[in-house]
Amino acid sequence: MRTGDLVVQRPEGLYCPPGDFYIDPWRPVARAVITHAHADHARVGHGHYLAAREAEGVLRARLGEITLQTLAYGERITHHGVGLSLHPAGHVLGSAQVRLEHGGQVWVASGDYKVAPDRTCAPFEPVRCDVFITESTFGLPIYRWSPDDELFDGINDWWSRNVLAGRASVLGCYSFGKAQRILSGIDPSIAPVIVHGAVEPLNRTYRAAGVALPDTQLVSEVKDKADFKRALVLCPPSAIASPWMRRFADAQAAFASGWMQLRGARRRGGYDRGFVLSDHADWPGLMQAIRATGAQRVIVTHGSVPVMVRFLREQGLEAGSFDTEYGGDAVEADETPAAGEGA
Question: Which stretches does the entry tag as region Disordered (predicted)?
Fold first, then answer.
């Protein structure tokens, strides 16, 4: 790092020296700008939180009583001479990129992001800058996502076949972001949808934010026990190996994650089916986002960092890295099938 950099790495997290605040710090600090509410980016213990307005419900639901200031996307404030604004990251509800302007420089810290369409959150907004801090969770050329229509057709077909066979379709997915994206894309006319107790509070938060989701039931709300043999069941993957699953008898179990593109990941997880679905950008998405910023300097965090840095340097960009404590999909999900994903 250089003298005058707008973001540097400290033991507490990524720090803006002229603004005297942190971005997604992993240790308690006085002032924290939060890109989104996943557990590896939004932690308890900070004195003051700043986040996008759309993230308020989820942050309060997950962190409890916090001192929270929110901004509309694109709204600009100035703190200690640093211009700051938040812009959609397309990752989950309320996710934001942080734009910083000071001393003639513009930096953007993207947090986690994806460029693919998503009915459940504001779409990714390219922000022009001099320096772009990018994630690299799926920063290898092998990771290329299929269009959502193909993906959800596959989920609906799998579910329909299981209904005909008289068995439930249990789909493991992260409770915040992934579950709501699945709900937004499935065909709820096939059969009832049951969700785990970890999922439903987030569904309520999404609905309160105006996101349209189909009706869902908790296990305790199911009146017709026959539904246990035909429903689509969304739950954290940890629940699939727990006593909670017994009521679904010979259910088919699947996992929705970007890691399902890895050969052998489904087998190692013991799933009957894997669906390649991620809330992070794939390799083409990462390259598209970086190009759209116009940045000549790129700093890579969490994921396939050496590969991304080497590739970007080969493209003529100045590339380096920050060593962070973000967990990609692993920390987010408590459900890692392989190398870690909230994918």
Answer: 323-343
Question: How many other C-beta atoms are found inside a 10 Å radius of the C-beta of residue 307?
Answer: 15
| 245-261 pLDDT tens trace | 999 989 999 999 999 99
Write down the CATH number for the domain with range 8-143+280-333: 3.60.15.10
Could you tell me the residue ranges of all domains in the chain?
Answer: 8-143+280-333, 148-275
Q: How is domain 148-275 classified at the CATH fold level?
A: Rossmann fold (3.40.50)
pTM: 0.93
- Same fold for the pair 8-143+280-333 and 148-275: no
Task: Tokens for 160, please give them.
Answer: 């329909």
Q: What is the pLDDT of residues 138-152, one digit of tens each?
A: 999 999 999 999 999
| Ranges assigned E (strand) in the chain | 8-10, 13-16, 21-23, 31-33, 48-52, 68-71, 76-79, 82-88, 96-102, 105-109, 131-136, 169-172, 193-195, 232-235, 252-256, 273-275, 297-303, 318-321
Contacts of 141 (CB under 8 A, 6+ apart): 283
Lowest mean pLDDT among 231-240, 301-310, 332-341: 332-341
Instruction: Please give the backbone phi and psi of residue 99, each rounded to the nearest 5 degrees, phi first.
Output: -100, 130
